[in-house]
Amino acid sequence: MARLRKELTTQPPLTPALTSWAEALGDAIGRGMLRALNTGMPGMGAAAAAPGNGAVMAGRRRGRPPKTVAGGPVPMDRRCTVNGCTREQRSKGLCSAHYQAERRRQIATGKPA
User: Fold this and answer.
1) Who has the most CB within 10 Å: 3, 60, 80, 88?
2) CB within 8 A of 106, min separation 6: which ones?
3) pLDDT tens by residue, the chain, 113 residues
């Protein structure tokens, strides 16, 4: 077994203020850990409080957040130009679904998107 170097084994004396701060910090961390073990981590809901119940928590959705519906139907001048589609335009007069379909068609035929 390797012998510890002498300079690593000796510690400088702590001031009383630093000692009381370290003790208070240790107590606070201990209380927080105890609370987390007893009640579960915040934001985890009932799944953390009752482990083993088979509950699966859904995480945050990736990508752009869904658009909030504020004012009812989309006005005619903002609708997708494809016949029968009532969704709002996103780009080049098309809704996001029709724009992506057109983009895939153009890429498949070799035209620049």
Assistant:
1) 80
2) 112, 113
3) 566 666 656 667 778 888 888 888 888 888 888 787 788 766 655 444 455 555 455 667 788 777 665 667 788 888 999 999 989 898 899 999 999 999 999 999 987 75
Q: What angle do CA 24, 25, 30 make, to 5 degrees?
A: 100
Q: What sign has the CA pseudo-torsion 41, 44, 46, 48? A: negative
Is 81 in contact with 91 (CB distance < 8 Å)? no
What are the tokens at 39? 């009640």
Q: Which residues contact 53 (CB under 8 A, 6 or more apart)?
A: 46, 47
